[in-house]
Amino acid sequence: MTIISRQSGADPLVLFFLCCEGSSMQHKKATTVLLSSVLAVSLLGGCRASDKPITLTVWTYYNGDQLASFERLVEEFNTTIGKKEHITVEASSQGSINDLEKNVLDAAKGRVGALAMPNIFSAYADTAYTLEQMGQVVDLSPYLTEKEKAAYLPNYLEEGDFSNDGSIYLFPAAKSTELLFLNDTDWQPFSEATGASYSDLETIEGLVSTAALYYSWTDAQTPAVGDGKALFGRDAMANYILVGASQLGCTIFDVKNGKMTLHFDHDVMRTLWDNYYVPFIKGYFAASGHFRSDDIKTGNILAYAGSTSSATFFPNQVATSYSDAHSISMKVLPCPKFADGDAYAVQQGAGMVVTQGSEQEIKACVTFLKWFTAPENNISFSVDPGYLPVTKAANNMTAIHQQYPSLSDSMDIVLTEAVHAITTNSLYTTKPFENGTEARSVLEHAMSDQASADLLIIRDRMEQGQTLDEASAEFLTDDHFEAWYSSTRSTLSALVDQETLTGE
Prior knowledge:
Largest sheet: 5 strands, mixed
């Protein structure tokens, strides 16, 4: 019997006839069995597990230009790396972030009418943590080499490390921080008349003083009418309180392994109160529109602290009425910090979560996420809506300009300031914990809602003839702060184990 190696590359049927030639009947029967096995193995050899087509579903909350950009990248992946690796990504927007979170939780809990769980979904840390506690999501750390992990900004990966063990349950997709956005056109007359400068807005204390000066200056334009204007507003009060407290040496939500210890420091809260609540009820700060960019548009304020992504909503004109509108230009400055505080800036932006599935599906998800966050792809996705890419290589303006030469002048300025912010400050984001979303919501509303409610009373009193000082006197007392502090602390303490409650 002629022996031919399988490595020769010969066709199995050819091997069969060669082996049979000149053999006895007994040999031929044995050879037939042998070569039938060889033929089966040969056919299966070209059908590796990785060659089986995989379809991945991805749920996001993206809309508008961001959704269009993501869909374009998904299509590019499907026709390049995806085609080669037999991976097809199907992406859909679930509406708002709240809609997305509800749909994911419904799917995870198997509720009637819920859609099947996606392979990947966008999420903030609290939602990712909830799903991780339910055993629904995958730790991606074992699927990345140390070199691959080192390509990302450490803070961005650490956000998804819920157990402080190097795990990655939340994969970074695009991030943002906060900056100060200023109506520079209407700032200039004030600056020329009073000597106020951009540098006065670098600290929170300087911002408050400048806002008081602006209120007096605008009020003096019409001496017979008390119509001083606010200079400043904030989009995210929770960021102000959490990051401001960190600058002052206090971590309000101190989380270790999902367990939160509350540090609601009395003196830190008083400093935060004095630099937001007090100037707000005096009319130096304001918040009337849904977002502070809305207040810029109506001329209610000149500046606000907000996410880099809010730059796309900064208006190009102020319209105080249908007949009174004028064009304005935007100035972008660093977000003010406490003068003697530590250098902290907020880190925010949803990431991507991979749900439980087969090993093949999980690896396919990782393939897509690594491709999506590669500098050349992540820059094109991130920069138009004002977000920052997540790798070290992409987080510099040289890389951004090379990859995206058509970047607008305004977004160029925004991203330049944003890159500077994340490279010169410690980045702060809360670790997830049970009831974390509710606790953050308390901080989002407690001080600002109190300020808005009290301001309504003050304005009503002023309409009845009282001066601002007379109308606001009772709200500027120590007792009023103490009542707010005690109430807010009690509300927060109800969300955590009493044994983990500290602060006075």
